[in-house]
Structure to design on (311 residues):
């Protein structure tokens, strides 16, 4: 570390290409899942825009395109976990923005349309903001040991967020379904990534101590349960978002809101930016604001219709 800068080790740097590969699988998985959700929604008597019903959920598991997309997303999650094992959260988490670019082109091809200038400009805002964010994070943040107190704080915050989103689900979903689902899903998955990083670090510590548990390690099990609950809740919100918005918009929200939440937790709670210079915080705020503004610009454009497909 020199003058507030952190140099990644070769092993940590390996987490970057792993995260980028995960973004590719995320993009294709989102496209296939979006196709499946739209087919189920079209064949259902009730619209999925205000929440997928039980029958619609069952129909999804029989839709080949949705199953293929789910498999791809599973691979993306595994690659994300590997990248979190290798590198700091603030470095690899924002790299999911690559999925936005890929998804935008895939969606344009599926709908037989061209990306208009406003959409391209919004995508550039998202990718540019996240790109600057991760560039600064890569040289100013580092992984630090995760303490019991920090894990408790993350779990408490997650519990409060889930409670607030549950209230919002019933009060906001009919007025602004797409934006609500995208923001809610992104926030929840941001916590999933943060908790996954915490669990990975704590498991590493247990292994280094010869698989001997120390006080507070019981919270690791609680964290795993929290990850499962949050992942299921976030997945439901994302699947519902596909019924009311194009996949590139959904992925834009996830690849911007998700890392913004994850990185904020990494910086504020986990202390990954304790060695960062003061100007890094200013860059984080400005770059994050630009990326979020790009998401809202995407949400305002006219949504292309998905071409008819049997699968």
């Amino acid at each position: 570390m020199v003058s507030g800068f952190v140099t990644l080790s070769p092993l940590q740097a390996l987490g970057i290409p792993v995260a980028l590969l995960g973004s590719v699988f995320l993009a294709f998985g989102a496209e296939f899942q979006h196709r499946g959700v739209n087919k189920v929604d079209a064949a259902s008597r009730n619209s999925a825009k205000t929440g997928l019903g039980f029958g619609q959920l069952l129909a999804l598991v029989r839709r080949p395109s949705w199953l293929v997309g789910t498999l791809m997303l599973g691979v993306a999650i595994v690659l994300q976990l590997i990248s979190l094992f290798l590198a700091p959260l603030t470095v690899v988490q924002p790299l999911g923005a690559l999925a936005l670019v890929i998804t935008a082109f895939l969606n344009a091809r599926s709908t037989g349309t061209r990306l208009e200038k406003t959409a391209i400009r919004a995508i550039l805002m998202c990718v540019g903001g996240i790109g600057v964010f991760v560039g600064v994070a890569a040289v100013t943040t580092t992984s630090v040991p995760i303490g019991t107190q920090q894990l408790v704080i993350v779990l408490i915050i997650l519990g409060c967020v889930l409670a607030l989103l549950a209230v919002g689900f019933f009060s906001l979903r009919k007025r602004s379904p797409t934006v609500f689902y995208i923001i809610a899903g992104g926030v929840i998955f941001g916590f999933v990534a943060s908790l996954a990083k915490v669990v990975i670090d704590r498991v590493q510590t247990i292994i280094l101590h010869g698989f001997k548990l120390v006080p507070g390690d019981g919270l690791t099990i609680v964290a795993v349960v929290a990850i499962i609950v949050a992942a299921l809740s976030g997945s439901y919100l994302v699947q519902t978002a596909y019924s009311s918005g194009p996949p590139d918009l959904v992925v834009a929200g996830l690849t911007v809101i998700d890392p913004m939440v994850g990185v904020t937790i990494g910086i504020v709670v986990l202390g990954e930016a304790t060695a960062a210079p003061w100007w890094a915080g200013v860059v984080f705020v400005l770059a994050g604001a630009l990326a979020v503004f790009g998401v809202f610009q995407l949400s305002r454009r006219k949504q292309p219709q998905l071409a008819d497909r049997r699968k």
Notes: The chain has one domain: 10-299. The first helix runs from residue 10 to 43.
